Amino acid sequence: MKKKSSRKRPSRFRLFRVIVLAGVLLTLALIFLVSTLGSQQFGSLHKLILEAVGPLQKTVSIGSSTVNRFKSEYVDILQDSLRLREKNKQLVKQLQENEIKLNRSREAMATNASLRKLLEFKNSLGQQSKLAASIIGKDPSTMFRSVIIDQGSNAGITKGDPVVNDEGVVGQVFAISPNYAKVLLAIAPSSAIDVLLQKSRVRGILKGDGTLTYRLEYILKTAEVQEGEYVVTAGYGGIFPTGLRVGVVSEIIRKPRGMFHEIKVTPSVDYQKLEHLLILHQPNLAEIKQLEQP
To answer: Does the residue 59 lie in any domain?
Structure first.
């Protein structure tokens, strides 16, 4: 029992010394703090701490200033970029609108020029009944190459009426409705037109072959035919007026056998650029009798 009591004394004494030392240090700290606050002067420790902390604080301050300046410049750049982007959108929109207006102006000028040529050709045909029409559709079939026009029986169009433009013969009306009609193009394989070689006055039949060329058939080998000679309508049958342009002889194939030349004709009409047409109305017998009545 005595041994246990002797062991407890040193541990208690050590604890007492720790408590006393802590009290002394706390007292010194309080005295140092009071003296510092009271005198408002920096002591050696404060100076040492200030020298150590000063550069760090300076670095932090410079960094903070740089960050703030960069942030301000970035915001300004971002705002300028947004303004430029909006301005660019406005300029692009304005450019597109101007291009649309320019394209409309060009289209109006081209249409006006085409209609002026058609009007001049219309006036050159004299007193024959004629009606202007525009193409609104095309049949891509090779066998039945045709176009749809925006005039029909309500405008006086009848089946078989010849169709022309300022370049020459285009085809014939072969189907009609009250407001629309189909025109069989002269280049269709089912088309056939009586024609004349303008120089030699030799008659033949012009047929389409489904491409952008004609075949001139039934021209005897005894006839004098030359490349470059013009082909015009013969006027037989009362369908097409005499002398309308059809095409130009582009190739003569002289075969050793057979009675006829094989002749290719290039159309005077550009079928890839058809827009506006003239329908030449041919009065039928009933209309002629009605006109002859007093």
So the answer is: no
Q: Which domain holds residue 202?
A: 130-292
- Count of domains in the chain? 1
pTM of the model: 0.56
d(CA 74, CA 80): 10
Residue that is written with structure tokens 């006839």 in the block = 223
Phi-psi region of 196 (alpha: psi -120 to 50; beta: other; left: phi over 0): beta
Residue 199 near residue 219, CB atoms below 8 Å: no
Which DSSP helix (H) or strand (E) runs through 1? none
| Residue 266 within any structural domain of the chain | yes
CATH assignment at residue 176:
2.40.10.340
What letter does residue 220 receive in the DSSP assignment? B
70-105 pLDDT, tens digit per residue, is 667 777 787 778 888 888 888 887 777 777 766 666
Q: Which residues of 143-170 are buried (b: 16+ CB within 10 A; e: fewer)?
A: ebbbbbbebbeebebeeebbbbbbbbbb
Q: What is the 3-state secondary structure (H, E, C) of 244-256?
A: CEEEEEEEEECCC
Phi, psi for 25 (deg, rounded to 5): -65, -40
CB–CB of 169/245 below 8 Å? yes
Burial environment of residue 132 by CB neighbours within 10 A (0 to 12, 13 to 18, 19 or more): middle
Task: Indicate the helix (H) or strand (E) that contains 106.
Answer: helix 44-124
